[in-house]
Amino acid sequence: MVPEHRAASGPAPTGPDAAAPPVLSVVIPVRNEAPNIAPLVAEIEAALAAVPHEIVYVDDGSTDGTPAALREARAGGAPLRAIRHGASCGQSAAVITGVKAARGRWIATLDGDGQNDPADIPRLLARAEAEAAAGRRTMVAGHRVNRRDSGVKRYSSRIANAVRSRLLRDRTPDTGCGLKVFPRDLFLDLPHFDHMHRFLPALTLRQGGAVVSEPVNHRPRVRGVSNYGTLDRLLVSLFDLVGMAWLQRRGRRPVIEADDAP
């Protein structure tokens, strides 16, 4: 499904901002997360005070006060851009929209519910930059060692991670963690489809990239309710896994031996 895009908040960047894009774009897909906008933006700004960055929110068809909360956050001076889907297209579609719109070389994805800790982003970014300096295109995936979710969520995730790891061999203990840092161009090279956000490590490996995991903080949700639920994930997981396994087996990466350009 191709999302209908509404205009981003504010004009397109011009002048010095357009000439000097940020180092990092923080992409946050949200749906009905109005109470979490201002607190999360404040935390991101504090965590990334030393990093040239932008915040790209993608409002996936919210029906609450999320659009107004995003306008207020931008009016407060945060380097924030907001893009809205006219109707909900799902978390993967929102991530794809956000990364395509991002201006930074590096992308950090973050869940909009406040459970991921923005204070972890600089450490994951430093790891990704070190990998790049060593000549590797690497996705740094957060690993929620001490999850602060309900027992049902933790149990279902444990099973899903075990089955996925055995079938796809992505060597990632927690693909469901929304906190990841990776090169923007790496993501743009990946095949894009619904629910792809659950398989980003496997897709990265398929593309010839590398994946490393870093322990990250995880916090309980204190405002709002989950909008991309456990049942939704379970109902599609089997078909997604089968499709992803098929996609892995159809991948072919050419080896470039020479470049005859003058």
Listing every helix as H and every strand as E from the N terminus to the C terminus, the arrangement reads EHEHEHEHEHEHEHHEH
Spans where pLDDT lies below 50 across 5 or more residues: 1-17
N-to-C CA distance? 42 Å
| CATH architectural arrangement | Alpha-Beta Complex
Q: Beta-strand level of the residues, as a percent range?
A: 15-25%
Count the DSSP helices.
9
- Please identify which CATH superfamily we are dealing with: Spore Coat Polysaccharide Biosynthesis Protein SpsA, Chain A
Structural domains: how many: 1
CATH topology: Spore Coat Polysaccharide Biosynthesis Protein SpsA, Chain A
Largest sheet: 8 strands, mixed
Average pLDDT value?
83
As a whole number of angstroms, the C-alpha radius of gyration is 18 Å
Structural class: alpha/beta
- The first-level CATH class is given as Alpha Beta
* Helix-residue proportion: 25-40%
Shape: globular
Question: How many individual β-strands?
Answer: 8
Strand order of the largest sheet: 1-4-3-2-5-7-6-8
What are its keywords?
disordered N terminus, alpha/beta, 8-stranded mixed β-sheet, 9 helices, single chain, Spore Coat Polysaccharide Biosynthesis Protein SpsA, Chain A, about 260 residues
Question: How would you describe what is shown here?
Answer:
- The protein has helices at residues 16-19, 34-47, 66-75, 91-101, 121-133, 151-168, 184-189, 200-206, 230-249, and strands at residues 5-6, 24-30, 53-60, 80-85, 106-109, 138-144, 180-183, 210-216.
- With 262 residues, it is an alpha/beta fold.
- It has a single domain (21-249), classed as Spore Coat Polysaccharide Biosynthesis Protein SpsA, Chain A (Alpha-Beta Complex), CATH 3.90.550.
- Strands 1-4-3-2-5-7-6-8 form an 8-stranded mixed sheet, sandwiched between helices.
- Helix 2 links the parallel strand 2 (24-30) and strand 3 (53-60).
- Helix 2 (34-47) packs parallel to helix 3 (66-75).
- The chain is globular and about 50 Å long.
- The N and C termini lie far apart (42 Å).
- Mean pLDDT is 83; it is low at 1-17.
